[in-house]
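wait is this the right file?? whatever heres the structure
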């Protein structure tokens, strides 16, 4: 294959990203935005209790999988990145950052990354960018992350927003992703991801990512409410359901299941005004109720089901 043909195949993924570790929770994560379709499918990698990787520029996705594998065997992030770079004949085109579950960080910006390109390391994090509109992008990300007091997901996203505000990708914006994993593994990868959000193609991907993070938090509260209701801790469950509703008032399903949980716990009177509000806004939920006794989500009591589905009809 000719060199010309090789260069045509290898297109750069113009990207700014951040990898970080939260010493208080043990969480690791990656945030990324790019003028490239589905950046979340190739750039961010993370594993609970192991670390996180962002691989970009002329992307070699195997840096993600192999970097995590090396860190899983006990290598630090700097050792893992050094080993992969040493074996990569195209390392001058790569931009890669890694952080391990002890907060040790390493980053590489190859000399052939398209300008403006660079990176900055802080305590427990690294920011990196290539093909940016100016060289202020990664310093702005570093400052934003260091000066934001919140959980890891919010701090990652705030860093991305700072990059966009000061110029971002020289070609514009298209996709974004946010990946945060817990501090220790449960052995179930799907349960180890606290936040896993991707915007494949959008006119304003970070605005959409911020909206999805809000919804993600709402559903997290709702899930916790379900757990507490199952444990018959209804006051605590009510607080979680209220937090979910406050974060995402437009999602009627959240109060609907709150009302179902209350009813199943024998608190139908408390559930009635919630049902009434949901049914008024979307009558489809009224008809959905009749399916739930067979699934074990409501008592098999026709009178109770009739009472629920009658709410609001008399008006």
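ok assuming it is, sequence goes like this
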């Amino acid at each position: 294959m000719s060199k010309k043909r090789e260069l045509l195949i290898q297109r750069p993924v113009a990207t700014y990203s951040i990898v970080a570790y939260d010493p208080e929770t043990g969480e690791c994560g990656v945030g990324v935005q790019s003028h490239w379709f589905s950046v979340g499918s190739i750039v961010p990698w993370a594993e609970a209790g192991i670390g996180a990787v962002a691989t970009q520029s002329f992307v070699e996705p195997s840096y993600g999988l192999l970097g995590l594998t090396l860190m899983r065997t006990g290598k630090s992030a700097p050792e893992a990145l050094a080993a992969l770079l040493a074996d990569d004949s195209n390392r001058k085109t790569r931009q890669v950052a890694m952080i391990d579950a002890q907060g040790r960080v390493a980053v590489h910006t190859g000399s052939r990354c398209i300008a403006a390109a660079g990176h900055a390391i802080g305590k427990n994090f690294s920011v990196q960018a290539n093909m940016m509109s100016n060289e202020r992008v990664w310093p702005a990300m570093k400052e934003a992350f260091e000066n934001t007091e919140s959980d890891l997901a919010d701090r990652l996203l705030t860093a991305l927003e700072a990059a966009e505000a000061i110029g971002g990708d020289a070609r514009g914006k298209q996709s974004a992703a946010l990946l945060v994993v817990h501090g220790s593994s449960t052995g179930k990868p799907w349960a180890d991801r606290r936040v896993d959000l991707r915007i494949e193609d959008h006119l304003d991907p970070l605005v959409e990512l911020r909206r999805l993070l809000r919804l993600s938090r709402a559903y997290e509260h709702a899930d916790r409410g379900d757990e507490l209701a199952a444990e018959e801790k209804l006051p605590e469950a009510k607080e979680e359901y209220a937090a979910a509703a406050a974060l995402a008032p437009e999602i009627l399903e959240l109060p609907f299941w709150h009302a179902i949980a209350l009813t199943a716990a024998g608190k139908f009177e408390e559930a009635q005004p919630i049902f009434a509000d949901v049914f008024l806004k979307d009558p489809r939920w009224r008809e959905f109720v009749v399916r739930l006794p067979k699934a074990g989500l409501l008592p098999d009591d026709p009178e109770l089901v009739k009472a629920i589905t009658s709410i609001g009809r008399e008006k």
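Residues 1-9 have pLDDT under 50 and may be disordered. so i think its the right one actually
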